[in-house]
Write a structure and sequence with these properties.
binds ligand GBH; alpha/beta; globular; eight-stranded parallel beta barrel; TIM Barrel; three-stranded mixed β-sheet; glycoprotein
Length: 508
């Protein structure tokens, strides 16, 4: 080869390599055909209309109405919230305007079954959801329906709620009514949203509804019955409805990623993973089923040290292990943030938090959002998705929630930056590393009732004016960014401009 030829060869090889790399990268940042993009809400957080028609009181109605100063910021309630019970047509119009493929909503159990039990079905309650589903269908938006997002009927709670094993039957009965009445219009069902959250905080720390402080015992009874109730709903769907309705059904978990404070401390990372993801994933998605052995051992040894005659974590019979194992067509991943971990004991003893014997903290370099717990760590999202794929044989996953709180503003460039950086990590995990994510839902369509934070934290793509009796809705800049993503079906750049409160480092 002549010198010139050699040079040309080298140059052209570089050009080819260069362009092929950038095309590969560009391809990585596209959403594959058939990928579902949507946004999510939950009944208690948006509907309002807490006592219309024959709807009965649920645990969040009770929790917010009980006069306990300090429980909820500003003593806010979900009595009116975004008034989506009356404004659902406007909500669907917003979904269509932004261009989303799917909408994840949840159903209010006490609106459908005012007695809690299946002996009485509310026609008005059913009609409301039928109207919402019809409106979605008319606008070409696919519904993803969550049966339970934290708001069970108060009467069920009076019987012990998630600590009473009877709830397995009650929840199954409720699920059957929903599948029969609404299932013909629904292809995607989620059973239960974030059990670790309402178990640990509703029955452990008592900071969320139903506000029971029975830590160390309550959260484990709750999780035990949640796993059984989830599996019951799954099997009812699978046997009685799937043959005609042909849909898919799974559980939704709140999953975070942990990095070790000391780079050599793999043990704390593994402990965090098993207590955070493994608690519910191992019984459902692992080959062997049941709680992770690490979790069983840690809780048993802490219980014995504390003088309990047996582990505070209940045991499943072999029949239940088999009944629960494999009871999900997909894993619903709610992901917001990551944490650092190190060995140590949390203050609330006994509790699921103390049993782990690790302490969580943010890295000081991580920017913080408008929620005290939400640090912006995009890389943790990719790392989490790869880890879940590796541990559970690459299950079908839907990211059922991901989003960020920011100041009350409509030029929410910081939120766009968050979505951009998190989506990039997800797309690389999928398109480069083969992780099986089939859909993504941004939290949330609307600013809404943010549980104990009331209306003080805003996660919406759409601003809601809570001082306006009409609850006026205004698209934020992030909603317009999503419009472009939905048009091009690829990751769009972040517009230039100053970013505010969220996503600038706040010292901790
Ligand atoms: C989701 O949970 C919920 O499913 C959704 O309803 C909610 O609106 C959304 O998050 C945004 O918060 O301050 O110590 O009490 C996310 C998982 C993990 C959020 C723990 C709140 C509270 C920690 N969550 N967290 S603390």
């Amino acid at each position: 080869m002549s010198l010139l030829g050699g040079l040309l060869f080298v140059v052209s090889a570089l050009v080819v390599r260069g362009s092929s790399i950038s095309t590969i990268e560009e391809n990585y940042l596209k959403f594959p055909a058939g990928f579902l993009i949507g946004t999510a809400t939950a009944a208690y957080q948006i509907e309002g209309a807490w006592n219309v028609s024959d709807k009965s009181e649920n645990v969040w109605d009770r929790f917010t109405h009980e006069p306990r100063p300090g429980r909820i910021v500003n003593n806010d309630t979900g009595d009116v919230a975004c008034d989506s019970y009356h404004k659902y047509k406007k909500d669907v119009e917003l979904l269509r305007e932004i261009g989303f493929d799917v909408y994840r909503l949840s159903l209010s159990w006490s609106r459908i079954l005012p007695n809690g039990f299946a002996n009485k079905i509310s026609q008005d309650g059913l009609d409301y959801y039928k109207k919402v589903l019809a409106e979605l269908e008319a606008n070409g938006i696919e519904p993803l329906v969550t049966l339970y997002h934290w708001d069970h009927p108060q009467i069920i709670e009076d019987l012990g709620g998630w600590t009473n094993e009877e709830i397995v039957d009650y929840f199954g009965d409720y699920a059957r009514v929903v599948f029969r009445e609404l299932g013909p219009r629904v292809k995607y069902f989620c059973t239960i949203n974030e059990p670790e959250e309402f178990c640990a905080r509703g029955y452990g720390l008592g900071t969320k509804a139903p506000g029971k402080e029975i830590h160390g015992i309550g959260e484990y009874l709750c999780s035990h019955n949640v796993l059984k109730a989830h599996a019951r709903a799954y099997h009812i769907y699978d046997k009685e409805f799937r043959p005609t309705q042909n849909g898919t059904i799974g559980i939704v978990l709140s999953l975070s990623y942990a990095y070790p404070k000391d780079p050599d401390d793999a043990t704390s990372v593994e402990t965090h993973f098993q207590f955070n993801a493994g608690w519910f994933c191992h019984p459902i998605f692992s080959a062997s089923g049941d709680y992770p052995s690490l979790m069983k051992e840690k809780i048993a040894s802490a219980s014995l040290e504390q003088g309990y005659p047996r582990s505070r974590l209940p045991e499943f019979s072999q029949e239940w292990i088999e009944y629960i194992r494999g009871s999900s067509d997909f894993l619903g991943v709610n992901h917001y943030t990551s944490t650092l971990v190190e060995p140590g004991v949390e203050s609330v003893v006994p509790s699921v938090f103390a049993d782990r014997k690790i302490i969580l903290s943010p890295d000081p370099s991580w920017p913080r959002a408008n929620s005290s717990w939400l640090y912006v760590v995009p890389k943790g999202f990719g790392d989490l998705l790869r880890l879940l794929a590796k541990e559970y044989n690459n299950p079908v996953m839907y990211v059922t929630e991901n989003g960020v709180s920011a100041a009350e503003e409509t030029n929410d460039l910081n939120r766009i930056q968050y979505f951009h950086d998190y989506l990039k990590e997800m797309l690389l995990a999928m398109n480069r590393d083969g992780v099986n994510v089939k859909g993504y839902l941004a939290w949330s369509l609307l600013d809404n009732f943010e549980w104990t934070q009331g209306y003080s934290e805003r996660f919406g793509l759409v601003h809601v004016d809570f001082n306006d009796p009409e609850r006026k809705r205004t698209l934020k800049m992030s909603a317009n960014w999503w419009k472009n993503v939905l048009k091009t079906r690829k990751l769009e750049p972040v517009p230039a401009g100053p970013q505010s409160s969220c996503c600038t480092a706040i010292p901790v």
